[in-house]
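Customer ticket, subject: "Can you confirm the structure for Alpha/beta-hydrolase?"

Message body: Hello, I'm evaluating your service for our small team and ran a test protein. I'd like someone to confirm that this is what the system normally returns, since I don't have a reference to compare against.
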Amino acid sequence: MLDTTDFLFSQEGLVFPVKRCRPKNNLPRSSEAEFVLLFVHGIGTHKETWLPTIEHLFELQSRRDGVRTGVIEAWIVEVGNHGEAAVVNEAILLERPGSLADHQTSRMILRLLRSDLLNGKKTIIVGHSGGACVGTFATLGCSLQDLPIHAMIVVEPAMITREFYTVLQSQETSLVKTLVEMAKTRKDVWPSRAAARKWLSKRPPWQRWDPRVLDRFVSHGFRDLPTATYPDLKEGVTLCCTRAQEALWYSLQEDGVNALERLSELSTVIPVHCVFGSIPDVTSKWMKQDIVDSCKGASVTVVKGAGHFVPQEDPENLASALWTVLHSQRGHVTKVKL
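Agent reply: Thanks for trying us out. I re-ran your input and got the following:
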């Protein structure tokens, strides 16, 4: 279904695996607009999370003759402390445990956007959860009159208003603090990949994931022991993104504020599209409404029956939502009730 090519980029001492995906035999025909989609994954996952969504998107496109809008290729990037990148960067991440791999990833994405590989193409960033923040930060340093992207699509973005951030700071307990503590103590060692998959399939949130996504998580989100974190464990598997690195991400609450403020600026000059799951399991309806209200003319699409982990739970309907977004007009707001 897909022709893929792997690339490696370096940024500030970290190495970033990047994959380009193209449809084998179904490039858009009679297309008036040809887009490139650049996908950024969320916290605790990996770049291959997006492959089922991309496959569905190209399959959907192949069934449409004479489409006016088409996707010629999709890129998936790995945040520097996740998946394959976490293995390659293991030593430097241990040496610099506070390293903000998300910001380094953003700067790497900007380099990719300005490179001969993407420069001049109509590129749209698609970011999920924390990946939406990473994708948004990729535009920092660019003037609003000279952006290297055509539009932004944020899927269940991990963004909050400054007002809500102030409230969180004043609370002794919060969802973010809970997530940090959970990340620090979560189970992260299993005797085998098969045992890990069995364990995950019986527990939230993984039990709701599409089997293809769960299989890829076990394949690409886990690594064999021993590791630098667990040098004395000689057998079994552990997570590529260590507990310390995942907890670090969850603690970066202000990044969600800064990302939303930048997204608000972007919405004044390029289309911004919000895709949400209908189930408010992680972000509430009013938090989602705050995001929409912060962005001028943002469109809203809801994937029914999905929660925060839309790419993992329902890649097929997410692909349909992305297809709809690509064919929408700037300034058109889909009338939905959050």
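A couple of notes from the result: Residues 83 and 220 are 6 Å apart (CA to CA). The chain has one domain: 2-172+253-326. Feel free to reply with more questions.
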